[in-house]
Every structure is written in structure tokens, then in C-alpha cells.
Write a structure and sequence with these properties.
89% helix; mainly alpha
């Protein structure tokens, strides 16, 4: 019993740390994305903001009944799908009205965000938990880390080619990653719910 309580305490602490880190990235990448006029950075900022909200939900669900955890995971997946739709709308808007992203700002912030997301991923994987919300958290952190790599490449291409399309392309890719992540989380939550009903 005490071992379970200890594991829950560690899980809460881990979720709280990654929540704070993602909230900080939301602010930093958001400001940087506005200053750099970068769709990819803004997409990553909104992604981290939705992640922080989801980590808060997961934090509140720790130690509660499985139905709580399953509903939290469902909400996580739905938020990712909403985020993906928002990014697609922003990319379309920027494609129509035009954009002039700053490559070096994109690259610098992508490196910082990649380091932070790698720390989050390592903290979550250290839990070695089968909890549906911890698996969702791992999906978020891995997606963010992959997105940071894409932004780094896009920033380099923006500088080399002096064109905006690499930034818009990565914005689309970030949306696609979020879409897949959201669907995976919903599938995982459905599987956990069905398993619970079967028992």
C-alpha cells in the first residue's frame, strides 16, 4: 500500500515538473514565435500550452479511480486534435496573407525547447508506469521533441533560401504529429476503458 502511495507521489511530482517546464516553453516559444513571425514556433508554443493543461489534468487524476484517468486521457487526446486544427488554420492564414519568419530565432529557440523536452521525456520514462495518463505524457514529450528537430531544420532552410515555405511546412508537420498523437491517446484510452469493462 505504501509502495503504491510512494509511486503516486513520484508520479505527481514528475507531472508537476513537466507541467511547469511546458508552461515556460509555452510563454517563451509564444513570444519568440510572435517576434520571429514563425508559424512553426507558434504551433510548438500552443502545443506546449495544451501539454501543460493536459499534465495538470493528469496531475489531478493521479491516485483516483480508473474512470477518472480514462476521462483525463480522453480529454488529452481531444485537446491535441483541437490544437492540430488550430495550427492548420494558422498555416493557411499565413500562406494567404504572407509571412517573413526569422530563421536564427527559430533555430535558437528550437534548441532550447529540444533540451527541455528531452528532460521531460527522460523524467516521464524513468517512471516506467503503465498508467494511461503517463503514456499520454510520454507521447506529448516525444512529439514535442520531434517537432523541435523540424523547427531547427526549417530555421536553417529559411536562412539559406530566404523563403518562408519551410516554416509553413513544419507548421503542417507539427499539426500532423499532434493529430497522430491525439488519435493514439484516444485509442489507448478506449482500450483501457474496454479492458476495465471486460473485468
Amino acid at each position: 500500500m505504501s509502495g503504491g502511495l510512494g509511486a503516486e507521489a513520484v508520479q505527481r511530482r514528475t507531472l508537476l515538473v513537466v507541467l511547469v517546464l511546458n508552461a515556460a516553453l509555452f510563454v517563451g516559444l509564444g513570444v519568440g514565435g510572435l517576434l520571429a513571425d514563425s508559424s512553426a514556433l507558434l504551433a510548438n508554443a500552443v502545443d506546449n500550452g495544451s501539454d501543460a493543461a493536459v499534465y495538470l489534468i493528469g496531475f489531478l487524476a493521479v491516485g483516483r479511480a480508473m474512470i477518472w484517468k480514462t476521462r483525463a486521457a480522453w480529454l488529452s487526446g481531444i485537446m491535441l486534435l483541437i490544437f492540430a486544427a488550430g495550427v492548420l488554420a494558422d498555416v493557411a492564414r499565413r500562406w494567404i496573407v504572407g509571412t517573413d519568419p526569422v530563421g536564427w530565432t527559430m533555430m535558437g529557440l528550437a534548441v532550447v525547447a529540444a533540451v527541455v523536452n528531452l528532460i521531460c521525456l527522460m523524467l516521464i520514462r524513468r517512471q516506467d508506469s503503465d498508467d494511461v495518463n503517463m503514456r499520454a505524457a510520454e507521447t506529448f514529450s516525444f512529439n514535442d521533441f520531434a517537432s523541435n528537430g523540424g523547427i531547427l531544420v526549417a530555421g536553417g532552410l529559411v536562412m539559406a533560401l530566404n523563403q518562408a515555405w519551410p516554416d509553413l511546412l513544419v507548421g503542417l508537420i507539427v499539426a500532423a504529429i499532434a493529430l497522430k498523437g491525439g488519435l493514439d491517446i484516444l485509442k489507448d484510452a478506449r482500450g483501457v476503458a474496454n479492458k476495465g469493462q471486460a473485468q
